[in-house]
Amino acid sequence: MEIFEVGPCKSSYEMGYLIGERFSSLIKSRLATDLILQTQLRPYAETQIAKPIIDSLTENNRSKFPRYWDELVGIAEGSSVPVLDIILINFRKEILAFMPKNEGANIPEDTPDDCSTVLVVSDSMAIAAHNEDANVALVGHTYLIQANLGNGLSFTAYTYAGELPSCAFGFNSHGLAFTLNSVPPREDEIVAGGIGRNFISRDLLEATSSGDALKKIQSSEVSVGHSYNLIDIPKRKILNIETASRNRFSVYEVNASPFFHANMYLHLQVPQIQDENSSSRQKRAASLPQESKEDFLSLLGDIDDKRYPIYMSGPTLYTLCTAVFDLDGPTLSIIEGNPKEGKVTHSFHM
């Protein structure tokens, strides 16, 4: 997995352009292997019913986050791919919810971004360990961006090819880090044309503290709900924030009792889809030891449930890597392969 250091740049567009140019072949490869894009998003985008949804997403997100929108356009033009394709993959969840269901059609279904996270803050340790799970199309299509902004801020972000940094996890020079988990609200809980999850997480990379990050999340007017694990290194604090449309959110401060989060709302009262995969992982995690860092890695590497393992290796969903944030290091370690084996491929001092 390549690391690209970029900036300071004259503009957000330039930063996006340089990222797109550097990873042009990887972005094109991702677009060519993404069956959801090819069979659902692109055909839908050509219809009349899609136009108002895509237009409102574009207008609202460009208005709220003009710099990040310029960055997105830069990624598209730097990689020489259509801007519409980059828009579609960055707003995948916000668009798919409104597509007509093709009953009986032989097309691939979208898969949840089934990440698993275990968090703890006790006297002896403060750790956030996270499996980054995604569709098979993302295998081999990720990179790390180390960005230096003109205002002196820098961030490191694990990034899906063609998407804004980061829909996965990252940290910045203010000592603020995060990981993300999707949550599946019912379709009638999703607001058309709201703020995209990728734009909110891009904004979190520039948060100055957990308090600032909380404000960014709470004022985001999201289209689709999400779960955020905010890691405040200076304060040695971890917060889990669950969000839903219409400005609903709930904040839980992690303590000495390990907190496992799959892809279900746990403390925000929102009607949600009953996802058997997520509930199975939640139950399995509750049955495993959670007393040490090694226990957490063993938990995230668990494959006992053959149908819904916590560590995923196909055929549709894969654990791309495991990120371990140790607040007392403070370090971020990235493990590729089953985290039980603990083979760290990248390590960063935060």
TrEMBL record:
Residues 124-340 form the Peptidase C45 hydrolase domain. Pfam families: AAT. This is Peptidase C45 hydrolase domain-containing protein. It comes from Chenopodium quinoa.
